[in-house]
């Protein structure tokens, strides 16, 4: 990145420490927190998996599952982690039928649990290679801190619609379709880790938005609340900056695919330029506001 330290937003680290400690206190009142040994990023991400799993077990009356999460506040991930250039990661590829859908959300998700198995070796290698590619193009810090659990979904052909997402209840976890190419997967990892970063940054800075403040989103071709608009104006530019850098290291169909993606995103981002400064005015934290503005400005020059 042309912005050294872009992703090192100190309030996020404090938020992670506070939330991790709070979750451990909920799961094991009176007990001292037990670090994973994988670092605070892993502790934060895995604590949310344990909390989500314990809450679901409590609601359904599954005592054995609840006891497992209470005894394994890190979802037993250390034993099944995959080594990468960014440190250990948890890579899983569950059956789509094993994903959970909350009664209050249409977005499905997967929670690590006692039956979780690592993804097959080929998929773990794909993720490791994608993380290396992202690191070599300047996005290692982002993925190191905001993509600890990688949930691979459907295998698709290049050119098919790739769907990926994150959910706020599982920070540090990303859900992605994949094509088998690390350069393409790295793009989508950066996009989703960007969402995780911004969710944490907004929470850490205490930013809230009035839902009546809406802006036209060229990506959705509709009016969106400030929260969603700002997310798009952050995550898509990050993938543009990545794509512009990785293109010289690709060839053939992958190069053509990423070139077309960058061309498309240039037009969409340009259509957001008029509203973006107005949306940024809603962020009261000057440091955070400037980080978002800098990435948007840089991507507009591509």
Automatic annotation (TrEMBL):
Q: Which superkingdom is the protein from? A: Bacteria
- Which InterPro entries did the record assign? AKG_HExxH
Q: Which NCBIfam families match?
A: mod_HExxH (TIGR04267)
Protein's recorded name:
HEXXH motif-containing putative peptide modification protein
Which species is the source of this protein? Streptomyces sp. Y1
């Amino acid at each position: 990145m042309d912005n050294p330290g872009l992703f090192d937003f100190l309030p996020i680290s404090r938020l992670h420490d506070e939330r991790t400690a709070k979750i451990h206190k909920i799961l094991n009142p009176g007990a001292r927190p037990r670090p994973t040994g994988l670092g605070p990023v892993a502790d934060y991400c895995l604590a949310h998996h344990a909390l989500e799993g314990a809450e679901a077990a409590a609601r359904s009356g599954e005592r054995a599952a609840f006891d497992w999460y209470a005894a394994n506040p890190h979802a037993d991930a250390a034993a099944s982690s995959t080594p990468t250039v960014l440190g250990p990661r948890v890579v899983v590829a569950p059956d789509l039928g094993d994903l959970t859908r909350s009664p209050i959300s249409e977005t499905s998700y997967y929670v690590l649990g006692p039956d979780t198995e690592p993804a097959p070796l080929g998929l773990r290698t794909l993720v490791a290679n994608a993380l290396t590619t992202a690191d070599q193009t300047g996005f290692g810090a982002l993925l190191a801190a905001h993509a600890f659990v990688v949930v691979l979904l459907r295998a698709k052909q290049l050119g098919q619609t790739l769907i990926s997402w994150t959910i706020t209840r599982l920070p540090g976890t990303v859900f992605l379709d994949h094509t088998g190419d690390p350069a393409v997967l790295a793009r989508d990892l950066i996009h989703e880790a960007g969402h995780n970063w911004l969710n944490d940054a907004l929470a850490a800075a205490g930013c809230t938005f009035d839902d009546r403040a809406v802006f036209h989103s060229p990506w959705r071709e509709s009016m969106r609340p400030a929260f969603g608009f700002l997310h798009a104006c952050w995550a898509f530019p990050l993938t543009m900056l990545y794509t512009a850098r990785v293109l010289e290291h690709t060839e053939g169909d992958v190069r053509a695919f990423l070139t077309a993606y960058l061309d498309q995103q240039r037009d969409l981002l340009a259509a957001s330029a008029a509203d973006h400064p107005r949306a940024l005015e809603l962020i009261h934290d000057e440091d955070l506001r400037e980080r978002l503005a800098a990435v948007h400005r840089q991507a507009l020059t591509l």
